[in-house]
């Protein structure tokens, strides 16, 4: 008989594009025994989790809940529910996840138009206005924090332009929620999704989603049923906030973890948490420049949660990241798409955004690059 060993993984420091390290409190609650999905104590816990989610999304939206699945399930849920076959959708693409929005909207039968920016730049509101003038759309989708490029997309003016054109705004906040302000109500963002494993600080497995009144109305006015049963938000919402009728068995461990991660955010305070992410990113940027490494994105558009830095000439990308992992237990990410082999992606997300971690990472890079 084959003998399998106890699970014994190396203790990594996670500084790639996600997942990020979890606070010990998050790991501890995951060992809490399961209870039934209609147990009043479980339902009470879910309701608190929703309150905490509204706080981090900075919204009063009643329809705010974590979809079962990773960030991509949040993306797919928003599109599946808001888009019907033949609807015009405009997608702003300046990186890998914009491309994924195009892919998913196309699969759900939308007539997708796209505007593009180079990988490393953000969109101006005027570009969106021009595109909507040429061809109106029901929905405009944009990524707030593009993890493939390290660009932070300003949303205030774009939200105005989209609403002036009578369209709904869908925002991907997968790498911003919990690390950078995501102001759903202030900007009138109609639909927004994120994930549990980046700046929020839990393992992957849940996708927080929030829908505003115009988005809810769009769902109520659908002609056709949502083609995905599993991601039908009206059915999921009925379990979370309605008569709690069974739709699917939500994960106990994952929801314990997300609630605890959100409780940590609540205790720290949003402003303090954003300031911590910002201060540690600035400390990283200074340290990289001192090592003669150049960030890929100009300062005003740099993401505090994820920095792309250009590879120095003559350095073997894969070999260096392998040494960083094997000799220092540190994970950073390589480039994606057009930036493959050209940049590294350094994440400072949630619990892993700390000054000690940056000092350690810079020390390791210095040793590997300069001996
Ligand atoms: C990580 C990421 C996703 C996808 O999330 P998964 O949890 O990997 O499914 C989507 N959008 C952005 C911007 C991301 O960084």
Number of strands: 13
Q: Which word captures the global form?
A: globular
Strand order of the largest sheet: 2-10-9-8-5-3-4
Q: What is the average of the pLDDT values?
A: 97
Bound molecules: pyridoxal-5'-phosphate
The secondary-structure class comes to alpha/beta
**Number of discrete helical segments:** 13
What is the CATH superfamily of the largest domain? Type I PLP-dependent aspartate aminotransferase-like (Major domain)
The CATH architecture term of the largest domain is 3-Layer(aba) Sandwich
Radius of gyration: 21 Å
CATH class of the largest domain: Alpha Beta
User: How many distinct folded domains?
Assistant: 2
The percentage helix is 40-55%
What fold name stands as the CATH topology of the largest domain? Aspartate Aminotransferase, domain 2
User: Could you tell me the strand content as a percent range?
Assistant: 15-25%
Largest sheet: 7 strands, mixed
Secondary-structure element string: EHHEHEHEHEEEHEHEEHHHHEHEEH
